[in-house]
Design brief:
Layout: E1 3-4, E2 20-21, E3 26-27, E4 32-33, E5 38-39, E6 44-45, E7 50-51, E8 56-57, E9 62-63, E10 67-68, E11 73-74, E12 79-80, E13 84-86, E14 91-92, E15 97-98, E16 117-119, E17 124-125, E18 130-131, E19 136-137, E20 142-143, E21 148-149, E22 157-160, E23 165-170, E24 176-177, E25 185-188, E26 195-199, E27 202-205
Parallel strand pairs: 2-5, 3-6, 4-7, 5-8, 6-9, 7-10, 8-11, 9-12, 10-13, 11-14, 13-16, 14-17, 15-18, 16-19, 17-20, 18-21, 20-22
Antiparallel strand pairs: 1-4, 22-23, 23-24, 25-26, 26-27
Length: 206
Amino acid sequence: MYRKTHPRKIIPSMNAPAFFQHPSAVVEPGARIGEGTKIWHFCHVGPEAVIGARCSLGQNVYVGKARIGNGVKIQNNVSIYDGVEIEDDVFCGPSMVFTNVRNPRAAIPRRSEFARTLVKKGATIGANATVLCGVTLGEHCFIGAGALANRDVKAHALMVGVPARQQAWMSRFGERIPLPLEGTGKYVCDKTADVYWLKNGELRCA
């Protein structure tokens, strides 16, 4: 599924998938990149990065020792630091921020303390939002623009504010689900016919 690359250059191979790399982008040897992925202006992909198929990296994106799934869209000016894992079909909005240390000091090295951050399948992170290291964002959750996600987020939860608090539930289609935050209930999406069940403060798609 992947092939090793060379900076600023694409070397065709009969056995390797093709991806697009803008001439201004740097992809270091050792990076693994899936078929159909597009890496745009001024990006920097590190040697231990793993990026899946059909992804899009917008202008000025950095990817360190991180894992990115298939179909992920990363907008301009986003840095994916060591220890971040992004599952399939995640959207990272422009200038959103991942951190890797909770208590940084310039004079104290803490590379050994980088915390793992997991973004599960289908999640959306809005423009200028911040995700603190060590948290897990649940499947198909929605972090609003400018929000601060400083704790684990439930699947399908809509989170807004600083710090972020849950305001509603979001469907896979990206629309609010008219169910309470607690209790029980059922909702059928009129766009996709997906069926959602709320039980004990958790929402699941059948």
